[in-house]
């Protein structure tokens, strides 16, 4: 079986992140609940994490559904290296220039013309 347990767990976490994000959008936009402007807290907190100066006070002020969405997203980043999604960063460049279909025979044949590589 090609799909590992880690991959299946990643699928569940990915679906949970999508569902939590949709729920946070519905609840935070005012469609279902009270409108919440996440741009003043959650997005500023997110930028502070990326510049390695996290401000936890901003996330503490956010509603629970945004905190859950962020927690699931962080779990997604933690699981990423242990699944097949890690290949998104290690795909060989030569793959882009390979022939579409490679036909191989079981016998050694003398070619009448030289092989072409790439497109």
What does this structure look like?
By secondary structure, the protein is mainly α. It has one domain. The chain has helices at 5-28, 42-50, 56-61, 64-79. Helix 1 (5-28) runs antiparallel to helix 4 (64-79). The longest helix has 24 residues, at 5-28. The protein is elongated and about 75 Å long.
For this structure, the quaternary state is single chain
The computed structural class is mainly alpha
**Uncertain segments:** none
Compressed to H and E, one letter per element, the order equals HHHH
What's the rounded overall pLDDT mean?
Answer: 84
Instruction: Give the termini separation.
Output: 33 Å
Task: Specify the overall morphology.
Answer: elongated
| Percent of residues in β-strands | under 5%
- Report the strand count: 0
The radius of gyration is 23 Å
Largest sheet: none
Please work out how many helical segments DSSP would assign. Answer: 4
The structural domain count equals 1
Helix content percent band: 40-55%
Brief account:
InterPro entries: Heme-iron_electron_transfer, NarG-like_domain, NarG-like_sf. The protein has 119 residues and is mainly alpha-helical.
Q: Topology of this protein?
A:
Blueprint: H1 5-28, H2 42-50, H3 56-61, H4 64-79
């Amino acid at each position: 079986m090609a799909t590992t347990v880690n991959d299946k767990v990643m699928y569940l976490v990915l679906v949970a992140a999508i569902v939590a994000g949709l729920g946070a959008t519905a609840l935070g936009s005012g469609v279902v609940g009270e409108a919440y402007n996440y741009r003043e807290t959650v997005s500023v907190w997110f930028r502070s994490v990326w510049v390695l100066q996290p401000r936890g006070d901003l996330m503490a002020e956010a509603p629970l559904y945004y905190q859950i969405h962020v927690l699931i997203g962080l779990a997604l980043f933690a699981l990423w290296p242990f699944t097949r999604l890690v290949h998104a960063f290690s795909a060989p460049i030569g793959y882009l220039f390979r022939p579409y279909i490679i036909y191989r025979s079981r016998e050694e044949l003398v070619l009448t013309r030289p092989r072409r590589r790439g497109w």
